[in-house]
Specification:
There is one protein chain. It contains two helices and ten strands; from the N terminus they run H-H-E-E-E-E-E-E-E-E-E-E. It is of the alpha+beta class. It has a single domain, classed as Lipocalin (Beta Barrel), CATH 2.40.128. Strands 1-3-4-5-6-7-8-10 form an eight-stranded antiparallel β-barrel. It is globular and about 50 Å long.
């Protein structure tokens, strides 16, 4: 009986430790996000600097499972494991990024907790950097 209680205690402790290992920045992303604006990285002269999306895009982020599911017009277009880190690693000034593990890409990440918004910069391959890309703005649902 004592052995069983010890095993149950060890299991509960290890489960609690797993939840504590979730990156605090990543935990801010948990939930469903809807694309509401696209910032143009390099707009044409006299052209728009922002666009309203023509398609319905959502991100479902499960921080405990460290997964992201991207849905466009009701169709899953991406399902991947994710993590938070600094990119590009070779840069003298790496920035906070959401890393998409299956595609070995990342997007610079900004989190505005007060507005309930995140922004993801155009995807780039790990340790590479895009100079002019679009920024995609999502609102928490």
């Amino acid at each position: 009986m004592t052995r069983l209680l010890f095993l149950l205690f060890a299991f509960a402790l290890s489960a609690a430790q797993c939840e504590a290992d979730i990156d605090p920045e990543l935990s801010k992303l948990d939930g469903k996000w809807k694309l509401f604006k696209i910032g143009i990285g390099y707009p044409l002269q006299n052209g728009p600097t922002e666009l309203v999306p023509t398609e319905t895009e959502t991100l479902e982020i499960d921080t405990k499972a460290a997964t992201l599911i991207r849905t466009v017009n009701g169709v899953v277009t991406e399902s991947t494991k994710i993590e938070i880190g600094k990119q590009p690693k070779s840069s003298s000034n790496p920035r906070l990024a959401l890393i998409f593990l299956e595609s070995k890409t990342y997007s610079f990440l900004s989190i505005d907790e007060q507005k309930g918004e995140i922004s993801l910069y155009q995807k780039s391959f790990l340790d590479a950097e895009i100079a002019d890309g679009n920024t995609f703005f999502y609102k928490k649902q």
